[in-house]
Amino acid sequence: MSQEQVTGATPHPVTVRTLAGQRRGLLFAILLAFLALGTLSLLSVAPATAGEPGVRQAGQGVPALALDPFASGFSLPVGIVSAGDDRLFVVEKAGQIRILQSDGTTLEPPFLNITATVRADDQEQGLLGLVFEPNDVTTFYIYYIARSQQFGEGVITIARYHTMTDTIDVADPNSAEILFTQPKPYTNHNAGDMAFGPDGNLYIAIGDGGGGGDPDELAQDLSQYFGKILRIYVTGVPTYTVPADNPFADDGDPTTLPEIWAYGMRNPWR
């Protein structure tokens, strides 16, 4: 696994480690899910009662809506992810991922538990993102803020995991591979979302680092990862390549990070 150190305009070092695997577009058909007080609810819409079935006629007003409790017992859920099968993965801020089945029950033990590693004390920090390898329910990536004695505000961390060999319902804790780390200058604006686009590239959203109004102007600094959306292509080896059509892939400035797809972001979390 290769590693390089990039020096930006601030004294916060940037450490890049490599990613691997094949990529595909992943659509999450989890619509109208409501996360509140650890309870998942589904929002249902009553169909029109007059005219063509399922079509609301002009002048009928707003359709009737109702929240139907579907599952409960979660601790600060921040996201729901599909692996492409009939399971849903509920991401809990403190560092657990729980499998939610189609009947509303959750599996035990949790799919993953890294609460000892995750820095979740601050309101905006914790385990923030999850994405599965395209066409592979056994490999997934997580985005979290790690505890660190050296960096008191935490470290953005992206890690790759695999499931156990005998079951896809439990992650193998010994399979963890740290791919990317970035020390935080402040505790807020961590972003944390990841997704595979239909172009086969992996998109990673990173916040501006926080501090209120981006005081270090990191989001505008092309030598820093903060305040950016990164776009990389993973080739199936322990490295990644930068798509040739990334806007800064070859701008002639050696300090520019070629992984940058978009910059000037505040906190593009969801």
Summarize the biggest pleated sheet.
Answer: 6 strands, antiparallel
User: What percentage of residues falls in helices of 4 or more residues?
Assistant: under 10%
Low-confidence stretches: 1-37
CATH topology of the largest domain: Neuraminidase
Could you please describe the fold and organization of this structure?
It contains no helices and 18 strands. Strand 16 (about 230-235) and strand 17 (about 240) form a beta hairpin. The chain has strands at about 5, 15, 35, 40-45, 65-70, 75-80, 90, 95-100, 110-115, 125-130, 140-145, 155-160, 175-185, 195, 200-205, 230-235, 240, 260-265. A six-stranded antiparallel beta sheet has the order 1-2-13-12-11-10, with no helix packed on it. Strands 14, 15, 16, 17 and 18 form a five-stranded antiparallel beta sheet that branches. The protein folds into two domains: about 25-45 and about 65-185, TolB, C-terminal domain (Neuraminidase); about 195-270, no CATH class. About 35% of the residues are buried.
